[in-house]
Design a protein that fits this description.
two-stranded antiparallel sheet, 126 residues, 4 helices, alpha+beta
């Protein structure tokens, strides 16, 4: 399974480069509320919150708009089936799903990892 992960021992400086890169890539706006990665406070530092590809969003979707790619293991949203109800966003344990007309979630594309100056993020195969 392919997913975005935080490298062990890496320290996030909360610069928001990853957050901005995600929102700009998918919504053409530098808006933290439109990013599928979020930075949260952890102790005296910060930590990126990322999609763990758990599938809770898919199990919650009544419209079968979220399915798991059998090849990569990544959960994907079919924008044609999504009605924008937001139930998947509420179900996300990591709080990294976005709703703007339709839902969006991390697809493990690596755009945020490339944008991180501290190299905190990576795409891994689990």
């Amino acid at each position: 399974m392919k997913k975005l992960a935080v490298k062990k021992g890496a320290e996030c400086m909360a610069c928001l480069q990853c957050v901005t890169a995600c929102s700009e890539a998918f919504y053409k706006q530098a808006d933290v509320t439109l990013s599928c990665i979020q930075i949260v406070a952890k102790g005296t530092g910060a930590k990126p919150n990322t999609c763990i590809q758990c599938g809770k969003c898919a199990r919650t979707c009544e419209h079968e708009a979220i399915t798991q790619n059998p090849k990569t293991g990544v959960y994907m949203i079919n924008k044609k089936k999504c009605v924008g109800c937001g139930k998947c966003v509420e179900a996300c344990p990591m709080k990294v799903m976005v709703i703007k007309d339709t839902a969006s979630k991390c697809i493990a594309c690596g755009i945020c990892a490339k944008a991180c100056p501290m190299e905190v993020l990576e795409i891994v195969e689990k």
